[in-house]
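Progress narrative, Year 2. Work on Sulfotransferase domain-containing protein from Tetradesmus obliquus advanced from sequence curation to structure prediction during this period.
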Amino acid sequence: MDDGYAGTLPQKRRPNHAGQLGRAGTPHQPGRVDSLTAHRITAVAAGREHALAATSEGQLLSWGGSRAVLGRDGEAGLPGLVQGALAGKLVKHVAAGEYFSLAATDSQVFAWGSNAYLCLGTGIASVAELLQPAAVAGPLGAGSWQIKGLIAGYQHAFAIADKPGDEELLQLRQQSSKAARAAASAGTVVGSSVAGGVAVLQQGTGGSGVAGIEVILTEKQQQEREQLQQQQQQVNASVAPQGADSPTAVTAAGSSSGSGGMVPASPGSTTATETTTAAGRDVAADAPANQHIAEQQISTEAAASTSSSSSSSACSTPGKLPFDWHTSYLPKQSPKLPLPRDAWAAWSPSPWHNQLAGLSPDVFALLPKQYNTQHRNPCWGGLGPGLSCLPYFNIIGVSKCGTTDLYHRLTLHKQILAATNKGPHFWDECPHPPAKGGCTAGPSGDFQAYINLFSRAADLIRSRPDAIAGEASSNTFTSAHGVYLRGFRGDKPWADWAGSAGLNASMPALLREAQPYLRLVVMLRDPVDRYYSAYHYYRWWEKEERQPTADDFHAHALRDMQQWRDCVAAADLATCVRRYNPQQLVKGMYSQFLQDWLVHFPRHQLLLLRYEDYKAALPQHLEAVLQFLDVSRPETASWQAMLGAAVQNTKSYPPMRHDTRELLREFYAPFNRELADALQGDCRWLWLDRPENGG
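Result:
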């Protein structure tokens, strides 16, 4: 076996660095994987940095890469048994994509790893990683077809199965027969053929009706399916109950179901969620002026938008919280990540590299070919005055969620160095070409000015090679989705500025292309409390005005929600998110921004923390961040300083009105559900454990 990869890159990285060979010894010539000699191997597949092998006993072994592609715990550098949903099954076929894995028995296909571009085919409209094998959705995972073969591409896959068209047609015939009987009982006559009809397929799911899976039929089969589907559609229209009491929930995957999932959508495009789950979508243009009626309308619309079920639908308001409620989600976010110098050496420019470089040429003109091997932090140049450094980590948001406090405590650690400006907002706010005074990253506002923010850290790193630097631009997270990219973009049609870069020209794409190794920390807070805090905080320029009352905020919230509903009614959800107005209300729609980050950064490079849990269990959260950064807990004195530091950037405000809180909770509920579903159905992201009142 041969690594076969490092030598093809202009920037080499250490061969076999991810354990993808499954053995020790020289990587540049074939060598036996000794731990496999006890097995008879019947199938083998290799991904970018991992491999799979099926044995004659039907077992599956994996090695190399991350925990997600392995589908198991244990040593990555040696073959290990993959079980989970595969336990007791006889694996016959294997396939490996870039960062995902597939295995199949005679009748079922299983997938795990990265779900970027929905390549796993599990029917889950989320790009979150799957850490264990799971059956794919639809007939390929149901056990009714005979699987003949599997093959995986970069981020897509094919399965060869016996007579898939006949199986689907059989199901359609059965559905058509049931529908005909229902129509007959209702006194409806349905024709035997419809000319020029359109097949009723869920948009974005392919012929199987499952997100990420498509069935390929013969021309004759396609014609028969279209005819049957047209008949089914006619019957459904004739016998379906009418009125508002029978809504059809439409998910982001575009299917009529209750999955409540989330799919990456290009900024400026329309998703199915916009019509049903975005608070305030279906409203009359002439909204009532009466405040009480407006409140009732907001409540009714929000309640309707929460009617569809999802993987978070099993969540309920907790009674007594489990003893580990505030910390149980932390160990699941503790991967072992490569150092920046190794990740950069292994990085291959994306297909849209030239497009992104054209939008931000000052960045790519200064990035080095390689980083110094003696430094943990990404630094390059000589060890004297010529040393330049970039951040190892970035706390990317969200504003008013405790980012300043976290950053301050971290920089009390002797190994973690601060930037000259804690939050320069270079990637989102500094335009190109640079404009004087256009951002806070130095006088020129270009990439060199951003590098200069870490010159003080570079001076210290010369003598402390294990030290790392970071920054905390708290609006970075909510600048995704086409809102900001080297300046505000939401006021312009997507095509007017992105040009040929298209979907890929978003800020997470640019940041990934320039710093693919970056460790991203995100702190999220109950969006209702975040919105209330921001309302008071961003009134600093109105210091001469009186302190606003709870009634003032109530009226303000109603105006903002009405403005949002008016925008979505006239345009669409994606466009209104990009317009970023009302800004503080939109910032709490976390799911709309997370999807863009997860398209471009693997989930394990994002550490998501909940502000309420951070406050309740500060030591455990600081330890989790240090582990994420691969930094040891400091000696006792420094640790006590980190824990005992004064809380940063906090103020107290009068309590919010109860009815205001309930209106805002209902408004944000669909976005919170999307967030929870994207994060493996974790109920904490619904904020059901929050108090009923208070500021």
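The first strand starts at residue 41 and ends at 46. The mean pLDDT is 76.
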